[in-house]
């Protein structure tokens, strides 16, 4: 059964936050100090995640699962969860290309400890990995993440390549006056290391609440900077994928931009999000949540959970309305929602 929102968009992607905790303190995501972590008893167990993911996959033909955080690799025994999700199967009658098979399973990580888990996660059934890297300069990395971990992140990227994942991508959040002078350097890094860099526009989800539009470096500016050094041509429409993509004319790979602010992809959005404490959110910027954890622990059946999921998706709005007068910031930061 398709899970369709009021605007005719079919949900195919579930983002699952496995923890709100993180070993970094990135300035656009978390405050330096004072974060109040969820009590462990309030965090979804692996079995609860498996149950909810199973409903999405087996009842609603959702064929993409992405594990996020916080930082997902700080959750103990993460490969165990990946193996549980990899054992799920879409119905043979599903319209998905994965019909009768496991959903596509991906992970977003800061990469600092990925070397320790790369092969185990690959063996457990993880298909793809995105690693965050906003700067190649050690001192700036320390300023942006408040952690001196650049060498380990670079090693994590290499470990991901060595493990043989189907895709390894780099996520780079660009903030004007902070790291916008590294756009070309980051693109070159992707070319040299055979990974796709995806530049992400700075969004109003910083824990400090200091986001301003003039800090956003838009897609057109990012692509122009890259094209001046490495000529590119745009690849055909992205569909429901969040990134617009370009190929380098010399054949040295591809590069992408997620233009959440200047050219939002809301009209094609096919995703919903599950927070670490079991709240279903229909948009990264949603102001309403649906408490699936309380329902499960209150004894709800799979049918009852399915009905609540359908009810939630029935409230999914047309778009996030950033830069409009009626935009309301979520009351949670990125780390608490799940990237």
Number of helices: 10
Average pLDDT, rounded to a whole number, is 90
Order of helices and strands: EHEHEHEHHEHEHEEEEEEHHH
| Low-pLDDT windows of residues | none
Whole-number count of domains: 1
How much strand?
15-25%
Q: Gyration radius, to the nearest Å?
A: 19 Å
Percent helix among the residues?
Answer: 25-40%
Q: Can you summarize the main beta sheet?
A: 12 strands, mixed
Distance between the termini: 27 Å
CATH class: Alpha Beta
So what's the overall shape? globular
What does this molecule look like?
The protein has a 12-stranded mixed sheet. Helix 1 (46-60) packs parallel to helix 2 (78-86). It is built from 10 helices and 12 strands. A hairpin with an 8-residue loop joins strand 11 and strand 12 (290-291). With 339 residues, the chain is of the alpha/beta class. The chain has a single domain (13-337), classed as Alpha-Beta Barrel (TIM Barrel), CATH 3.20.20.70. It is globular and about 55 Å long. 30% of the residues lie in helices and 17% in strands. The protein starts with 12 loop residues before the first strand and ends with a helix. The longest helix is centred in the first third of the chain and has 15 residues, at 46-60.
